[in-house]
Amino acid sequence: MQEYSEELINSFRQEASLMKRLRHPNVLLFMGAVTSPQRLYIATECLPRGSLFRLLQRNTAKLDWRRRVHMALDVARGMNYLHHYNPPIIRCDLKSSNLLGSFMTFFSSGIS
């Protein structure tokens, strides 16, 4: 049985509380949170296409310029929403493994 520090539990609760308020087509939709003695879980919408990182690693991935631009605009829209949220949400680790979905939905978790 794993014990969690009070700091980690509070951080988890804050993250879940923030995620449940975020509503934007380009930000991952929060569905709920669960705690158990072994794990802390955040449930989100299912995006079966996976991350941009995974898409780029596949040799079969053909991204024409139109799709690339659409994906970049989706990321920019999601980031703009987060930056204009009150208070602003600033991501310091925007990377391809945090970009998900069917074009791009931004995963906004700050918990590792």
UniProtKB/TrEMBL annotation:
Signal peptide start-end: none
A Pfam family it matches: PK_Tyr_Ser-Thr
Stretches assigned to the Protein kinase domain: 1-112
GO biological process: signal transduction
One Gene Ontology term of the molecular function aspect: ATP binding
UniProt-listed PROSITE patterns: PROTEIN_KINASE_DOM
PANTHER family associated with the record: SERINE/THREONINE-PROTEIN KINASE TNNI3K-RELATED, SERINE_THREONINE-PROTEIN KINASE ROCO5-RELATED
Protein known as: Protein kinase domain-containing protein
Species of the source: Eucalyptus grandis
Lineage summary: Eukaryota, Viridiplantae, Streptophyta, Embryophyta, Tracheophyta
